[in-house]
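REQUEST FORM: STRUCTURE PREDICTION
Request ID: SP-0412
Submitted by: Lab K.M.
Chain count: 1
Length (residues): 624
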Amino acid sequence: MSLNNEHQTVLAARRRFFEDGRLPRGLVPDAIVRSWSRCAALGLEAAAPPAFDPLPGGALREACERNEQLRRQCRPELETLYAEARDSDSVVILTDARGLVLDAVGSPGFADKAARVALRPGVQWHEAATGTNAIGMALIEHRPVEVRGAEHYFAPHRVLSCFAAPIMDPQGEVVGALDLSGHAALPHQHALGLLRMVVNQIEHRLFEGRYRHCEVLRLHQDPALLGSAREGVLVFEDHRLIAANRHALALLGIAWDGLGSLRYSELFSTALSQLRDGAPLRGLRGQPLHGRLDPPLPPLPRPVVLAAAVGARSGAAECGPVLDSHLRAALRKAARVLNADLPVLLQGETGAGKEIFARQLHAASDRAEGPMVAVNCAALPENLIEAELFGYEEGAFTGARRRGSPGQLRQAQGGVLFLDEIGDMPLALQCRLLRVLQERAVLPLGGSKPVPVDFRLICASHRDLRRAVNEGHFRADLYYRIAQYTVPLPALREHPDLAGLIREFWSRLQSRPAVELPAPVLQRLAAHDWPGNYRELVASLRAMLALVEPGCPLTVEDLPAPLRQVSANAAGRSLAASAAGSLSELEVAAMRTALDAAQGNVSAAARRLGVSRSTLYRRLLPPP
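STATUS: Completed
RESULT:
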């Protein structure tokens, strides 16, 4: 059928569904009908423009950081598909498990058109937000799908033909989706097959190095496919099936819910001991298969601490506030408050180390042996945040997991729940959270009986929540419930000895022998305002460390571009100082000039000069 005939058929199906209220069986695929029905049940108006709110830059960066492992594992395939997309005037898109676009690459000309219909990073493409589309359907249907032209729910999206496949991890959970989108007026004959092939590669890569302690069985009916991305993979721990890929499940005719319950003897007639000795593999009904068993590997030796390894770890574990005496005292007090079952609120700028402080608080509390469940309220789509937090029963909504989900609040049972960026929680959800905190019970979506919960609560926000209450953006009753004890986390620029702190982080990030940080470089770093706080500092130091070459000391030119800038005032002061008296007098004069320019603000003057506040006090106010 030609593209024009297909288009006319879909338009007839739309008239039957949207105008006559009848199901257009036989005119469009059943999956499209199911999606249209789901969207209509959600109250989406097909004739109205779709509403989408891209994540702000900070929230998108955090989402990308959370999904960095997925992005890294998909990068080879994205590069492969980039050439295909560029030649076919289309774009390739990677999303997370909720349909949030993380990456989009491809034809520059078509990318601009795609961006105008919200096909760009930071936009949610699950069905509840953008109607019928290939990404949303693939995430719900758990299989590759295509949505062509007018099969899209909303009119602006009919210029697209989209092909998407979900990415499943070895436990059968969807971790993301890969999509290829192009002009609806052009044929894309091999798009879906290409996506299947590259997703096979990605899912095969997800097993690498993940199950060293287990027995991994690779199998197929064709021995030539063993070792390829099309082989079946089964992982056994103590003879119990704990992980698999789709190819293996299809070969054996079992479903994902068999993970954790099925044993090896329930799947194969060849005993595991016989297979280890080289016996041929046979299924339980005697069907011949070709298999290869990878035995467990010994534990990896403790790694030598290298700069790259420590740097990678620092991005999460060490990219936080260094606890001086003031913060250590605040941590001890906050732990006592948390142990008394009172919530603790952390306030600080983005990157100031709120989550790291929360984890230290969890470790210092009487719930240290329990779980700590961290939820970023700014990164959850509004349509899904209720299910994510409070859980849902089986069949609560279309696309729900077969056994339901307990939700984040119940997963924190016996431990600590950390609600990061709570200031971005929608008002409607704030009301439900307040009820949970008051009644100490959670009512899952689709449930009829509240479930008691027991957890300690830590909240955090970069927003001024008191101002948000006054402006009507945050419920006053919830604010007074969670703000019974507030810990303000200072920005990095307010650290009393910023230069010393930078030296400490520089030392943490590298191996021995350590590379020295030259004084001019350190001064330039200490003079920076660090709007991104600890996260920006550690990222800059890692970049500098990567540029270190044996025998070549770092210079100011090796700094990231924003740090190489020197203000005209600072340059003028330096030139004036070179023409004045003794070095000591010049230093004092420069300090007084900086203090005057900062209108008496010692912290600001110290930042300008790249020295600590204590140094400034000591030089300007010498002891009698």
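NOTES: The first helix runs from residue 3 to 19.
Reviewed by: T.R.
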